[in-house]
């Protein structure tokens, strides 16, 4: 219909005002609400009440001419009536382009093409609003373009340099997405050297490598860093673990049994950079550790595993400040690797980095299939406190399956048991189990349900696959590096309760399908065994260690982009 979420008005208007535009193009004018609101928020608020005093140019495009109202003629300088793709061909560049509750009306591929086209007409930013859960909708008042034809999630916007936030609404939420036009990046010389080294073969001498932990909490990212320290030591290298979260704790987490040659705690990364002089390389595990990296006396390598800000999830913070801070960190001349092709694309689009991909590994000897069993246990893994893990959707999925008559029980591995109100199915919590008990817990389940909105990799599904446990998961980005729908897992768009519930129900009532996906998943996991992954990291670290040579191509050579930093670092 020719209207949009009233709840989204403050976020949309704020996004426009932060850009300080002199011109705005409103694509999909509808009633004309945003033309009127922006006219009041800019010209009228500045004392320019009469139209002949207005300075902000506001144009619009509306495909359905019968939607024309007096607002169009009053608030807008000009409204063009016709197909937006055709009209855009003859329009100039505007500082800000609005696409408010339009994207869901076009098929996904046409929507991607539309965003690219609008970015070519946006000098500062494109602002998109689209429902998280579009309601079924057909024609309205003879307008065939009102039909809802696609649903978009945060993962869909990773092809562009975007910031995303969710505004709560009674039907699930309005997604507000701010997209910057593509920047003209210069290359980081270190990226090419490291990416080339990842593909090389040949003997490697003994390395002395430190892994810097930003904290000691039990997370997938920390587990991966510690496992590299363990595996490299087993291959004859000297390994160290440094905790940069303060000298009051650590240096090793109590939940890990990793053994290393040296461990120490520092007040922060700057303290570590100023102290450590005698190792071949330091592997950083968190973007904040890049601060003061120019002080390091040994080569650095940052292993990116993903976190909300990197994917543009800035629901609770100033998006411009976040974008400026991250840009200042990722444009430092420190080589970067990442754990999936999905992450590599994000880093390339947002920061012009060409990163070597080093996928996460799994211990396929420990995580291995058990004896065949017939049961109905659904496994959940992860902290309910992390919003992007989206256990709200997991519970809705399971409730849907239960209400449709299929019976099961739930095993939830977590750090803190959540409060589940009026939950109809039985739930058993495994709270902070020892790490060596995880494989047995996985093997006690019949399928894993994984509903993250986005992930840089997504380790629990791979661990489940290694145990021969079938996986039902949201197609949350990083998981696409190893999970294929119908071949070794069942996938659905993030937040798609109906599709995920159908997959869970299908596997619960068809043991043969569970066995098939379990076998296929195990075959997939074997390709990600640590024995296959660690040599790739070994080659990368050997190349990074060579940067100690003063004649190295990257030493002392800064690089930058044409896009300005809008705010100082946080």
From TrEMBL:
Q: Which domain of life is it from?
A: Bacteria
- Domain (Glycosyl transferase family) spans 434-522
Where does the sequence pass through the membrane?
A: none
**Entry's Gene Ontology BP terms:** lipopolysaccharide biosynthetic process
Keyword terms: Transferase
Organism classification: Bacteria, Bacillati, Bacillota, Bacilli, Bacillales
The record ties this protein, via PANTHER family, to: GLYCOSYLTRANSFERASE WBBK-RELATED
Tell me the organism. Answer: Candidatus Reconcilbacillus cellulovorans
Q: What is this protein called?
A: Glycosyl transferase family 1 domain-containing protein
Return the Pfam families for the record: Glycos_transf_1
């Amino acid at each position: 219909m020719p209207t949009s979420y009233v709840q989204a008005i403050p976020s949309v208007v704020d996004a426009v005002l932060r850009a300080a535009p002199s011109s705005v193009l409103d694509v999909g004018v509808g009633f004309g609400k945003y033309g009127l609101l922006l006219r009041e928020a800019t010209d009228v608020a500045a004392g320019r009440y009469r139209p002949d005093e207005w300075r902000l140019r506001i144009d619009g495009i509306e495909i359905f001419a019968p939607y024309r109202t007096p607002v169009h003629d009053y608030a807008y300088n000009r409204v063009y009536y016709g197909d937006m793709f055709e009209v855009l061909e003859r329009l100039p560049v505007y500082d800000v382009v609005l696409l408010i509750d339009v994207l869901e009306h076009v098929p996904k591929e046409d929507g991607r093409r539309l965003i690219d086209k609008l970015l070519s007409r946006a000098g500062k930013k494109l602002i998109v609003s689209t429902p998280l859960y579009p309601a079924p909708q057909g024609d309205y008042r003879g307008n065939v373009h009102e039909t809802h034809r696609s649903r978009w999630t945060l993962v869909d916007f990773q092809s562009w340099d975007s910031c995303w936030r969710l505004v709560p609404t009674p039907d699930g939420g309005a997604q507000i997405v701010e997209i910057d036009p593509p920047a003209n990046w210069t290359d980081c010389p270190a990226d090419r050297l490291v990416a080339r080294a990842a593909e090389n073969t040949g003997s490697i001498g003994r390395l002395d490598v430190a892994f810097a932990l930003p904290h000691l909490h039990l997370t997938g990212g920390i587990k991966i860093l510690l496992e590299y320290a363990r595996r490299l030591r087993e291959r004859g290298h000297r390994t160290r673990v440094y905790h940069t979260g303060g000298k009051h704790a650590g240096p090793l987490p109590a939940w890990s049994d990793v053994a290393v040659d040296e461990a120490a705690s520092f007040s922060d990364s700057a303290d570590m950079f100023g102290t450590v002089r005698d190792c071949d390389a330091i592997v950083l595990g968190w973007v904040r550790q890049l601060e003061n990296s120019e002080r390091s006396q040994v080569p650095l390598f940052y292993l990116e595993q993903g976190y909300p800000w990197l994917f543009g999830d800035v629901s609770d913070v100033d998006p411009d400040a976040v974008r400026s801070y991250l840009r200042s960190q990722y444009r430092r001349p420190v080589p970067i690797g990442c754990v999936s092709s999905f992450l590599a694309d994000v880093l390339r689009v947002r920061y012009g980095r060409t990163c070597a991909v080093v996928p996460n590994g799994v211990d396929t000897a420990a995580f291995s299939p058990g004896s065949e069993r017939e049961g109905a246990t659904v496994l959940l893994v992860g902290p309910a406190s992390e919003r992007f893990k989206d256990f709200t959707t997991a519970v809705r999925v399971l409730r849907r399956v239960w209400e449709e008559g299929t019976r099961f029980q739930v095993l939830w591995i977590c750090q803190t048991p959540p409060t589940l109100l009026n939950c109809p199915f039985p739930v058993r919590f495994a709270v902070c189990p020892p790490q060596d008990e995880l494989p047995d817990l996985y093997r006690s389940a019949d399928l894993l349900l994984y509903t993250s909105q986005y992930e840089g990799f997504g380790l629990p599904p791979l661990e489940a696959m290694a145990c021969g446990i079938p996986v039902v998961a949201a197609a949350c980005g990083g998981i696409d590096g190893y999970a294929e729908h119908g071949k070794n897992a069942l996938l659905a768009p993030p937040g798609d309760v109906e599709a995920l519930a159908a997959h869970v129900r299908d596997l619960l009532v068809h043991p043969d399908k569970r066995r098939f996906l379990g076998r296929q998943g195990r075959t997939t996991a074997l390709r990600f065994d640590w024995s296959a992954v660690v040599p790739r990291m070994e080659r990368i670290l050997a190349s990074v260690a060579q940067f100690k040579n003063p004649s190295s191509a990257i030493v002392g050579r800064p690089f930058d982009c044409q896009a300005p930093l809008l705010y100082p670092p946080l």
